[in-house]
Q: What sequence folds into this?
């Protein structure tokens, strides 16, 4: 069964450093998403991406964050100048069509120290 | 703003019991998702439904659009069903509930 692949599974970084979280969506899916889950809290929406541009972003997704699809297959989330409160599990998700079923990656656990 | 509420937050059952997890949402939505999250953190999609009822194995999901309410049922529960079950409403994005931690004891 097709799956969404996320790398790395764990990342520890120093506060102030930049991190790039990577996702390989299912090949014929068109809608891509990043969500995050701070430990003990509910999953929160960060950003959606369609047709090579951001279609929607939450208030969390400020100038510290960026997304891109550099080579037509990978979908990346970059966090600049990480803060302690960026520590969370970050999930990539995709869907074949809008309001279609989602497939999620297994997540990247980011720890900022 | 859509709010998604789940109950109960925690549920402990004996193997074989019938389990129900409830979800309510505050505004009209295009679909409601039920998801499963295992201790490692990964999220698996169980159901997406916009009306009526869906069944997959021992899992059944129902939705009442008028009452803005959905339920997830597990029949003949088993310890391997132990996980966090999350409902999420669908519009242009998913809005997640807090999740229900289910523990099924042998």
A:
């Amino acid at each position: 069964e097709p799956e969404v692949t996320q790398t790395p599974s764990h990342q520890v970084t120093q506060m102030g450093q930049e991190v790039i979280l990577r996702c390989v969506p299912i090949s014929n899916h068109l809608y891509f998403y990043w969500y995050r889950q701070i430990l003990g809290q509910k999953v929160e929406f960060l950003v959606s991406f369609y047709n090579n541009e951001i279609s929607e972003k939450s208030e969390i997704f400020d100038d510290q964050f960026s997304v891109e699809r550099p080579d037509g297959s990978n979908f990346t989330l970059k966090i600049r100048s990480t803060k302690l409160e960026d520590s969370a599990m970050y999930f990539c998700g995709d869907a074949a069509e809008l309001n279609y079923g989602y497939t999620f990656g297994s997540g990247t656990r980011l720890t900022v120290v | 703003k859509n709010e998604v509420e789940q109950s109960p937050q925690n549920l402990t059952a004996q193997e074989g019991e019938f389990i129900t997890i409830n979800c309510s949402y505050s505004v009209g939505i295009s679909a409601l998702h039920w998801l499963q999250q295992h201790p490692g953190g990964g999220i698996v999609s169980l159901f997406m439904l916009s009306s009526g009822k869906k069944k997959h194995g021992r899992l059944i999901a129902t939705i009442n659009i008028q009452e803005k309410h959905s339920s997830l049922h597990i029949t003949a529960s088993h310890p391997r069903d132990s996980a966090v079950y999350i409902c999420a409403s669908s519009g242009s994005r998913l809005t997640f509930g807090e999740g229900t931690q289910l523990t099924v004891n042998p």
Summary: The longest strand of chain B covers residues 83-90. Chain B has no helices and eleven strands. Residues 3 and 34 of chain B are 15 Å apart (CA to CA).
